[in-house]
Every structure is written in C-alpha cells, then in structure tokens.
Design goal:
This protein is α+β, with helices and mostly antiparallel strands. It is built from 19 helices and 16 strands. Helix 16 packs across helix 17.
C-alpha cells in the first residue's frame, strides 16, 4: 500500500492537467538509396510511432520485460514498482527506477528531465491521462519511437540501423535485448564503447524475457551463443556527405516540409559504404606519408551519383571535400589538353620531342629528371610528361583547352596562363567526375545529380528529376583516340595500380608539383570514378603521387562498384562525321550517283 499512497500523494500535488497537451513532432525528411534503404534522416528528431505489427513479438517484449514488466496491467503508474524502489532506497540497496514506460513517455513528450517533486507529480498525472487517451499498443509504439539509445540514435529504427545495420523488423532476439538494455544508460551499455558491460546487461534482459515468458530458456541459450555484429561506424555514415550535398537541393524543391517526406536518391548504399571503408583504411595506411584526407565520387553514364565520400570521418570532419574543396587538378587535367589537340588534328601517333621548353619565360620540369627525346603523344600522356603537355597546350591554344574542359563538365573558372596545361586550375572532385564521365559514356556531357524523386510518406510525388536532352561533348575520332591513350596510361603508364583485371579501364593520374594534391580519375563504360587525396591544411604530402595511393584507392572502390552497378566496355561513341561532299564541278564524270564510302570509328587497341 505504501507505493499507492505515495502515488496518490504525488498526484494530489499536481496542478489541474485535465486536458492532455498536444503531442508535437516536427516533420522529417528521410533519404533513401536507389534500392529504398534508408541512408539518413534530416529535420525533426523523432520518427513516427513504431509499427509494432511489423516487428517480431520478442522485440517490444524485450523492452517491456526489462523496463516495465507490468506495463499491460497498470493504469499508467506501478504502485508495486514505486514501493520496491522506496524499500531499496531506504535499505541502502541498489537504486531502482520506478517509472513505467507510460511515465517515461509522458516525461519525454511534455516535461523536462529535472528531478523535482513537482515534475514527478505532473508526470504521474500525464501518464494516467495518456493511458486514458491511448491504447497500450499506441503508447508503446510512441515510446519506442522517442527513447534515446546513444550514438545519436533516437528511436528503435534509428538504433537498429546505427548499431546493427538493419531495419528493426530484422532484429534477432540477442540484438533486441542489447537495444533494450541500452535504455538504462546509453553511455555505460553502449555495445561499441562498452562491449563487456553491454553483454552483461544483455544477459540480464534475456533473463527477464524468460521470466516474463517472452522467450524460452532454449531461445535464451541460443541467443547468448550468437553474438551480433556491432558496427563501429554506421553503414550510412559516409552517406552523410552526400545528404549534405542534396539536402539543400531537396528543400529548395519542396520548401519547408509540413509533413514527412521521402527523398529517393541515386546513391547505391553498398557501393557508398565500401567506398567510405576504403577511404578510412587508405588514409590510415598512408598517414605517415602525410595523407590527411581523401574524397571519392562515382557517377554513372547518365550523371547519377552512385557514391560520394567527402572525407575519412563525417562525425569529426563534416566538410565535404568531394563538393566544396577546390584543389589543383595536377596531371589529371592533361586529358583536356590532349583532347583539344586531337580535335585540332593530332593523333596518338603524332611524333613529339620531350626536351626543355620555355613558354613566356616559364620552363616546366618533368617528374623524371631525364628527357625521353623523340616519342609520341600516346607515350607522352601515358608517362605524364609535363614538357609535352605544356607545348601542346601552347600550340593548340589554351583557350581551346579551356573550352574543351568546360564543354565536358568543368564548371570552375579556368586560368589560361602557360601552367594551366599542368593542372593549376582549382576544381572539385564532383566536377572532375562529371567531366570524365563524358569520356566513359560515349562523349555525352552530364550534370551530376543525386535526387531522383521526392514524395510524401503516403506516396504523393512532389518532385521528379527530369533528364536533360543529351549534349554531345566529344566526337570521333578524338573520343576514340583519347580512349586509346588513357587505356595505355592504365596498361603501361603511370596508372597501372588502378587496373582491374577483366574490365576495360582507362584513366589518368594527377600529381601537383608540390605534392599537395594527388588524384586518380578513371572510367569504364557507364561509370566514372574520381579519387582525390591531400591535406586540409594544404601542406605537402611526402612523395605521394596519383599513381600510388589514389590509384590503389580507386581500384578498391571500383572493384566494389563493378559488383553492384551495370557497366559495359568503354563505348566507342558516335561515328565520325561524314566528309562534306565535293563541290559539283569537282565530281568525276559518271560518279555523281555513286554512294559515299562508309566511315568507320577506329577499332580500340
């Protein structure tokens, strides 16, 4: 009776709260990948009430068993629990919580966490009112959507994704017990930070589940024998850079949301997660070489961003280097120089000489101290010879190089001083990816994008991406000639570490003269990927070239992407334009109606 008396005393101290306050919840915008997997939520902290019908029965039972085993029989407060807590406190034993699930929900919905007599009194009254206004099922569903599990996860669904990389509907008994055990102390029982304490608490929850009949002793034993995989990093953690990039775009399309929205994106979460893991591993591996950060962007042939990693760790460094870091392109810029040259009539076999050159008082130096002497443009690009690129840009016109780069997808301002041939222009990884995409999709310019569709939670479409009309940025024979040369870069030039056995790969390394930036930009049919490595403080790395760590990281990312994304051999692009017909007075007699000779695109080497 002591518990009931205390409860009555508390309720009598509460003011008149005859009307239950409104339950407020700000709308959320949920982002999903191309397969519908949740990659992030922005906006309001709390998700909609959990749909208990979609959960295995043992999931809600785990929380009831350890938090409030008389939940289904009390009227909002538990006199027995209150009495037990008072006896424990008076006896000097372990402090025991007396709050029911309904009381915890009332506190979460309407009150502050202050430990005062008045707050406790209000909590009891509100708990009773909640019980009168809502069913037990509704109360539990609302509770599970709002409790905090630590590591930034509010609600059951967010916690399940954060710790186990799966929806709550797929939780095992052991995983459900682990999450239920977290609520007592999200810090002390965090399975990432405190695995031993978490395991002890999980065992206690499983014992309670057996005592309440939620599971059998045999199921408990099986659960204990099957430790779950706990993710140190959320599978979608790397995707937060991508969401930052498109969040503003999505909100510009829908305005301030007045209801929950779902943004369907172009991202492929498994590819994204593999890229994020690869970035973390590469930065850690090459830390002694001075690499501090890396960025990755993968774009398919239509411009859909399939992966975007803006750094090694979003939590500690959310600046998106894939989109917002303007860095020198280095030798990854040279394909634009060579393309302008191909368009001006050169070919990969054009003979050139690698020798000292001075342009307007500027004398570029090669990475290798010795000059090659007589060679070809193909070998000049394959071995990234600076003197050849600088002279080539000067001969074909740096304005023409800039125009070619802009036509392909570079949107940054391009300088046209002599050193531009070596990549002194500041660019971002995402614009380099969309420019290289034109090489790999048959010569069509694309605009990289990430939002496919936006709909309400009920399915009403409020935005749909509209594809732009294809714009041919590169024609043949220049396109096929560029394929030939950039295949050679990977086969026998500076980019051999990027080769992927069994796939048609082409690309270009990029290293700035001061080692502040290192790139590998490459493609296969229908997929272009760009890797950048460097430091946020713009200090030089120690001898890191585009053909080393960036090429290795590129290959790792592409291996994962090629398992997930549809690709082809590099397409040849459009046929060369037919030659203009000769003027009438030049047509040989008798040949006026003869068909023109067919034109053929060069066969790839």
């Amino acid at each position: 009776m002591i518990g009931l008396a205390v409860a009555v005393s508390l309720m009598s101290a509460a003011p008149d709260l005859s009307r239950l306050p409104d339950i407020k919840r700000d709308p959320q915008v949920t982002y999903v990948d191309r397969s519908g997997a949740v990659i992030g939520v922005r906006g309001g902290r709390y998700a909609p009430p959990v749909n208990l019908d979609r959960l295995p029965a043992y999931v809600p039972a785990a929380f009831v068993s350890i938090e409030d085993r008389r939940f289904y029989s009390h009227a909002g407060f538990d006199p027995v629990g209150i009495a037990r807590a008072i006896v424990a406190d008076v006896g000097g034993g372990r402090s025991q919580g007396a709050s029911t699930i309904t009381q915890q929900l009332a506190r979460n919905l309407f009150l502050s966490p202050d430990q005062t007599f008045q707050r406790k009194a209000n909590e009891l009254v509100l708990a009773v009112q909640l019980e009168r206004a809502y069913s037990k099922k509704q109360i539990l569903a609302l509770y599970l959507s709002r409790v905090y599990f630590g590591s930034g996860a509010y609600g059951l669904e967010a916690a399940s994704q954060r710790f186990f990389n799966k929806p709550a509907s797929k939780l095992t008994i052991r995983e459900a017990a682990t999450l239920a055990g977290l609520l007592k102390s999200p810090t002390n029982y965090n399975p990432i930070e405190q695995p031993e304490k978490s395991a002890q608490r999980t065992r206690l929850v499983l014992d309670a589940m057996v005592e309440t009949g939620a599971i059998t002793a045999a199921e408990r034993a099986k659960a204990l024998a099957s430790p779950p995989k706990v993710y140190k990093f959320a599978a979608s953690s790397g995707a937060q850079y991508f969401i930052d990039w498109i969040d503003g775009q999505a909100r510009a399309a829908i305005g301030t949301p007045r209801q929950d929205m779902v943004v369907e994106t172009t991202l492929d979460l498994p590819t994204e997660a593999a890229a994020a893991d690869a970035v973390r591993a590469a930065v850690a591996r090459y830390q002694k070489a001075g690499i501090g950060q890396a960025a990755v962007v993968a774009v398919d042939g239509q411009g859909r961003v399939r992966a975007m990693v803006g750094g090694a760790d979003y939590v500690s460094a959310p600046f998106n280097r894939a989109v917002d870091a303007h860095r020198q392109a280095g030798s990854a810029w040279k394909p634009f120089v060579y393309m302008a040259a191909m368009e001006a009539g050169r070919t990969p076999d054009t003979a050139v000489v690698d020798e000292p050159v001075t342009i307007n008082g500027w004398s570029p130096r090669n990475f290798e101290p010795e000059f090659l002497g007589p060679t070809t443009l193909e070998q000049g690009l394959a071995h990234s010879v600076n003197t050849i690129a600088a002279r080539l840009a000067d001969e074909v016109g740096r304005d023409n190089v800039a125009a070619a780069a802009h036509r392909m997808g570079i949107v940054s301002t391009i300088n046209t001083d002599p050193a531009m041939a070596l990549g002194t222009t500041l660019v971002t990884p995402v614009e380099m990816a969309q420019a290289y995409d034109a090489f790999g999709n048959g010569g069509v310019r694309v605009a990289a994008y990430g939002v496919e569709r936006i709909r309400t939670a009920s399915g009403q479409v409020v935005f749909q991406h509209r594809a732009q009309a294809p714009a041919q940025a590169i024609l043949n024979p220049p396109l096929e000639e560029m394929h030939r040369m950039m295949r050679t870069v990977v086969a026998s030039g500076t980019g051999t570490r990027a080769a992927v056995r069994g796939f048609d790969i082409a690309g270009k390394t990029g290293t700035t003269s001061d080692y502040k930036d290192a790139w590998f930009c490459g493609y296969t049919g229908n997929l272009a990927t760009v890797v950048w490595m460097g430091r946020d403080d713009a200090q030089p790395m120690r001898g890191v070239t585009g053909g080393s760590a960036p090429a290795e990281l590129w290959q790792t990312v592409m291996r994962a992407a090629l398992k997930r994304l549809p690709t082809t051999a590099i397409p040849p692009g459009p046929p060369p334009p037919a030659p203009a017909p000769p003027p009438p007075d030049a047509t040989p007699p008798g040949d006026a109606t003869a068909p023109a000779a067919p034109t053929m695109a060069p066969v790839p080497n």
